[in-house]
Design a protein that fits this description.
Blueprint (H helix, E strand, L loop, with lengths): L1 H25 L10 E6 L4 H10 L6 E9 L3 H17 L8 E6 L9 H22 L3 E4 L14 H9 L4 H4 L5
Length: 179
Amino acid sequence: MGGTLILAAAAGAVAVLLAVRLWVVLRPRAAVPRRSLSLLVVAGSGGHTTEILRLLENLSDAYSPRHYIIADTDEMSAHKINSFEGNRADRNPSAMFTEYYIHRIPRSREVQQSWLSTVLTTLYSLWLSFPLTHRVKPDLMSEGNLHAEVEPKPKLNPRSCANKEEKGESVRAASGAVD
């Protein structure tokens, strides 16, 4: 009984916070022409940071400042982001907008953390992330679990691969792989 009451209170708090956040984000504002747009990127640990940085390689320098949010214990993502931004600045030293910031918040769930305590740590992470998002006020948001694929790869059957090899066509291109 006590556990369900805690979960119901937590769900109610999250619903109120989300409603307030939606109001803040979606309320009408006057359009102002800009030379740059601020970008907020929530980078996940592991391969997700690399994945999101590959997508960001193709963005113009007009997306500045770039704000990265990472977990407070994620040193690997911080290193990857700093390296990525350093390489980006080296490639285009005349870029007008090269600002970036790394913000840290607590993880909502550690590996092997119990599911019951996850509710509390998630609420704590949300408690810290909403004011951060409000302070940064990004024009565009992205999260680290994006998938760059727009359409699914076609299924290959071995017979069509053999035919393509005989005709001198690339099996790699037929599989949907991109160089």
